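> forwarded from #structure-qc
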């Protein structure tokens, strides 16, 4: 029925009416908070490229996890900066590595806080790539799978509630699932970075994680930003190999991908609101160009509306405070 009988503004008149018919809900229980843990150094060292985010010692990580837990945030995602690096990234699967130590410490202090461990070699390799390099400088996919599997087992054995492979090697979900199951870790979920694009929005993260490639780039294994059908294929392959949750990264330039992956897989979908997206909002807010609270809540609601069940965001603590008011 058309105007004047139909007036859509009727349900927009008051906040109570608007909330009653709201289609998309943003809740603290849907958020994951990323943290950068360093092997040594002060408890907290601010990261200039990510205002409000710190490099954390093990003790600092426990403290920060406690703050997140107290705000009702259900999960943290850990990235590790090791004391030393080598061509294979052996610190990634070291039982006494930074992520393993941090995981044990956080789970001991907050057993009901979900600890998700990022699973990649780029933070641990001296060359900065996500896998083992051949002599020609190309990442060797199949050799890398063996090292990723060792890392998954080490992280899960340390107490990780879920592992999140972000390397974009072909076949890695199947390799991880097989290794975890073989070691009696069949209950450990895999949150796969299924559609991870070779994006310009990772800049602040690469500085924070000290993971910029020393030569070349990651376009040979991360996805072309122009491709959507390929993203769906990647997600479906990960599901076939045993992924429990699939992820799209970044979020804002790829809202269409989030929607398509959700519709095509019917799986829980995570979206990573990445460092560049966070830093842009922070920079604009610092210049007085936008209302930070309103912009962040609108952004994350948009990511949820696109189909994300889980939102990984550096804004998580602020959002938790805002939503509780």
């Amino acid at each position: 029925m058309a105007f004047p009988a139909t007036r859509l503004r009727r349900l927009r008149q008051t906040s109570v009416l608007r909330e009653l018919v709201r289609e998309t809900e943003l809740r603290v229980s849907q958020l994951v908070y990323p943290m950068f843990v360093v092997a040594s150094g002060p408890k907290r060292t601010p990261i200039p490229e990510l205002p409000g985010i710190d490099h954390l010692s093990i003790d600092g990580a426990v403290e920060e996890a406690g703050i997140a837990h107290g705000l009702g945030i259900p999960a943290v995602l850990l990235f590790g900066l090791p004391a030393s690096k080598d061509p294979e990234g052996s610190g990634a699967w070291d039982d006494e590595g930074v992520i393993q130590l941090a995981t044990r410490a956080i789970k001991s202090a907050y057993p009901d806080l979900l600890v998700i461990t990022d699973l990649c070699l780029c933070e641990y390799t001296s060359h900065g790539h996500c896998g083992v390099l051949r002599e020609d400088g190309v990442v060797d996919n199949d050799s890398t799978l063996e090292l990723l599997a060792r890392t998954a087992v080490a992280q899960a054995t340390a107490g990780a509630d879920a592992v999140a492979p972000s390397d974009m090697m072909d076949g890695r979900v199947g390799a991880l699932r097989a290794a975890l199951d073989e070691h009696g870790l069949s209950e450990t979920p895999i949150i796969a970075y299924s559609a991870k694009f070779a994006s310009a929005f990772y800049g602040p993260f690469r500085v924070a994680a000290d993971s910029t490639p020393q030569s070349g780039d990651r376009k040979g294994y991360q996805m072309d930003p122009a491709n959507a059908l390929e993203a769906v294929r990647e997600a479906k392959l990960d599901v076939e190999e045993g992924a429990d949750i699939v992820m799209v990264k970044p979020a804002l330039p790829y809202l269409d991908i989030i929607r398509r992956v959700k519709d095509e897989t019917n799986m829980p979908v995570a979206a990573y609101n990445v460092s560049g997206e966070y830093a842009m909002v922070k920079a604009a807010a610092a210049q007085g160009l936008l209302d930070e609270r309103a912009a962040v809540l609108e952004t994350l609601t948009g990511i949820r509306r696109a189909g994300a069940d889980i939102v990984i965001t550096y804004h998580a603590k602020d959002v938790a405070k805002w939503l509780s008011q």
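QC bot note: The first strand starts at residue 31 and ends at 38. The chain has a mean pLDDT of 96.
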